[in-house]
Amino acid sequence: MITELRRARVSDHPAIVERVQSWWGDTHSPEQSRELSLLLPRLFLQFFAHTSLVAERDGDIGAFPVGLHSTDDDSDAYIHFVGVAPRLRGRGVGRDLYTEFFRRAAAAGRKEVRSITSPRNARSIAFHRALGFSLEPGDREVDGLPVHSDYDGPGQDRVCFHRTL
User: Fold this and answer.
1) Average pLDDT over residues 92-121
2) What are phi and psi of 119, to 5 degrees?
3) What is the DSSP string of 77-145?
4) What's the sign of the alpha-carbon dihedral 93, 99, 104, 110?
5) Does domain 1-110 have CATH number 3.50.50.60?
6) Can you say whether residue 150 is alpha, beta or left, with left for phi > 0 and alpha for psi between -120 and 50 degrees?
């Protein structure tokens, strides 16, 4: 299990990228896993290490949330990406990481946490809902979900969440 939860460091970047590529290998092709890892450029740990965490045991990263506090709105925080090792899934590790992110964001005066996912990612949608996130209205519905069309570019639709702290 996890024995240490600490702030992320820039030096964690290669290990985090490697974990994204391997942890999603059971549900994604190698190319899709590589594309997922591109969502975590080094800049996130250069500029948002203060608000990102690493959970590890004996120096081995088992989970991480990469998040940030908005520079434009002092009441908002955002969880960008969360990874949990397959061997740790279903044990509450993800919930614990989100809870700690919420605690730290609230201590910094943040009132809302936001997140997004793909409308095809049913596990992520269910997870966010279970943690008390609300779905933000979109410009259309897909399978009963409010979707924001082209949110991240043409064909990159997203479901957007928010949670009051």
Assistant:
1) 96
2) -60, -15
3) EEEEEEEE-GGGTTTTHHHHHHHHHHHHHHHTT--EEEEEE-TT-HHHHHHHHHTTPEEPP-SEEETTE
4) positive
5) no
6) left
Asked if residue 13 has pLDDT above 80, the reply is: yes
- 30 pLDDT tier (thresholds 50, 70, 90): confident
Instruction: Give the pLDDT confidence score for residue 27 in this predicted structure.
Output: 81
Q: How many CB atoms lie within 10 A of CB 23?
A: 21
What does the pLDDT read at residue 26? 77
Please state, in angstroms and rounded to a whole number, the distance separating the CA atoms of residues 82 and 16: 10
Nearest to 85 by CA among 23, 127, 165: 23
pLDDT-above-90 percentage for the chain? 87
Q: Could you tell me how many helices (H) and strands (E) the chain has, helices first?
A: 5, 9
Structure tokens at 104: 């730290």
What's the token pair of residue 107?
A: 């201590």
Any idea where the domains of the chain sit in the sequence?
Answer: 1-110, 114-165
Q: Which residue has the tokens 């997922």?
A: 36
